[in-house]
Design a protein that fits this description.
By secondary structure, this protein is an alpha/beta fold. 43% of the residues lie in helices and 12% in strands. It contains 16 helices and 10 strands. It has helices spanning 8-15, 24-31, 58-61, 67-72, 91-114, 127-133, 147-150, 155-161, 194-206, 217-226, 250-258, 279-292, 301-317, 325-339, 366-374, 379-399, and strands spanning 35-39, 77-83, 119-121, 137-144, 164-168, 209-211, 231-238, 247-248, 262-265, 344-346. Strands 1, 2, 3, 4, 5, 6, 7, 8, 9 and 10 form a 10-stranded parallel sheet that branches. Strand 5, helix 9 (194-206) and strand 6 form a beta-alpha-beta unit. It is globular and about 55 Å long.
């Protein structure tokens, strides 16, 4: 009887299955710096028991972004938003918004400090490549709704010092800076207010990217005229595909591109397909919210589970049309056709109401790369869409700043 003397390592190697070669789409996705320009994920940071290093799920807690899912989706980072809902336009309301925004900024810094082996705060476009090469995730900071600074624009410098490099002046309602695209009261300022125009000048001075998502058409027109650097629409869609106040028409899209700017196509269903009003559904949702006893980020884990379970039952009983990946690609491909591939990017509006069939969370992002390659776009084109274009606008804002470093 002969003793087997072949080393186990050689046996294992000889028995191993041949490595599967990556597809062109997988290669393109891996080669790109994959950035989303609008993560509302920081709103989860204060929730008891919620940690970005844990794998969550849309079904379990409604969240769409965390470290394990970023890794699975090949997502290298993005702009983590300081979002403040529009509150009373009073000294007290402005102070409350300011304090909430400062707390959210601190929470973002705390997350990065706690998980420094996985995340790095970036303040310059040029830093993204090195962070990704080191195997870490890029954290830029943005501000959605600038009510926190409207009472005192010198606070823009404060938030800049805290790392904010993108600011959108307005959200769902008009404020002291200008008109929203969705305020039911309509126009108040016919675009930017005098303070809003000063806001644009200060952003240019600091080197902050101006974000026109949620702003009215008049505000966009005036920002394009006044800004000395390119603009971004961090999460928006196209009127030509679905007519909605939050979307942009082709004429303005061309003007955005002519200025060097970028539109980041979002995945927010009601901006992509018609929203059907079902009175019984609305009544059931109102009763559900009443029974849960809290709203939004104020829910406990148990309340959130009760809400998600209840909403699932309501969706099953009174289903409404929901946008899907095909709808998303219609917006994206039209934007590329009109503005050019140098002026289009991606944002799911995740953790802020985004998410459609086929794009539920960041794990689904490789599907966009696959669709772009199937449409004939190159690896280089895909790198532009996934992060290159947004980084170019970020660099342009920094290069055009007139404030002293």
């Amino acid at each position: 009887m002969h003793r087997l003397t072949v080393p186990l390592a050689i046996l294992w190697a000889s028995c191993a299955l041949p490595a599967l070669s990556a597809t062109p789409a997988e290669d393109a996705h891996k080669a790109a710096i994959v950035l989303d320009t609008h993560f509302d994920t920081p709103a989860n940071f204060h929730l008891a028991g919620w940690d970005i290093m844990d794998r969550h799920s849309v079904a379990a807690d409604g969240s769409q972004v965390d470290y394990p899912r970023m890794v699975e989706g090949g997502v290298d980072g993005g702009f983590f938003a300081i979002f403040t809902p529009q509150g009373p336009r009073t000294p007290e309301g402005d102070a409350k918004a300011r304090d909430a925004a400062l707390l959210r900024a601190v929470e973002i810094h705390q997350m990065v400090a706690k998980h420094g082996a996985q995340f790095v705060l970036a303040t310059k476009a040029e830093e993204a490549g090195a962070i990704v090469a080191a195997g870490k995730k890029v954290v830029f900071i943005s501000m959605e709704n600038s009510q926190p600074v409207e009472a005192d624009l010198t606070l823009m410098q404060t938030f800049y010092t805290l790392g904010v490099r993108m600011m959108g002046p307005i959200h769902f309602a008009n404020n002291d800076l200008g008109d929203s695209s969705t305020d039911p009261k309509g126009k108040e300022w016919n675009g930017l207010s005098p303070k809003g125009k000063a806001f644009v000048a200060e952003a240019n001075r600091l080197g902050v990217v101006l974000d026109a998502s949620h702003a009215s058409d008049d505000v966009l027109d005036q920002m394009l005229e006044l800004s000395t650097t390119p603009l971004i629409l961090s999460h928006s869609g196209l009127d030509a595909i679905f007519d909605h106040p939050r979307n942009i028409d082709d004429k303005r899209l061309k003007a955005l591109a002519a200025k060097g700017g970028v539109i980041q196509i979002n995945a927010f269903s009601s901006y992509m397909v018609p929203t059907v009003k079902i009175p019984e559904r609305d009544a059931a949702m109102a009763e559900l919210m009443k029974s849960v006893g809290a709203t939004g980020r104020d829910m406990t884990a148990a309340q959130r589970k009760a809400f998600l379970d209840g909403r699932k039952a309501i969706d099953a009983k009174w289903p409404v049309p929901r946008a899907n990946l095909d709808d998303f690609m219609k917006h994206m491909l039209h934007a590329i056709e009109v503005a050019g591939v140098d002026h289009v990017g991606v944002s799911g509006d995740f953790d802020g109401g985004g998410g459609i069939a086929g794009l539920e969370d960041v794990t689904d992002y490789p599907k966009i790369t696959e669709r772009l390659m199937a449409a004939g776009y190159s690896k280089e084109d895909i790198a532009k869409v996934w992060g290159g274009n947004a980084l170019r606008v970020l660099k342009a804002a920094a290069d055009g700043r007139t404030a002293k470093p």
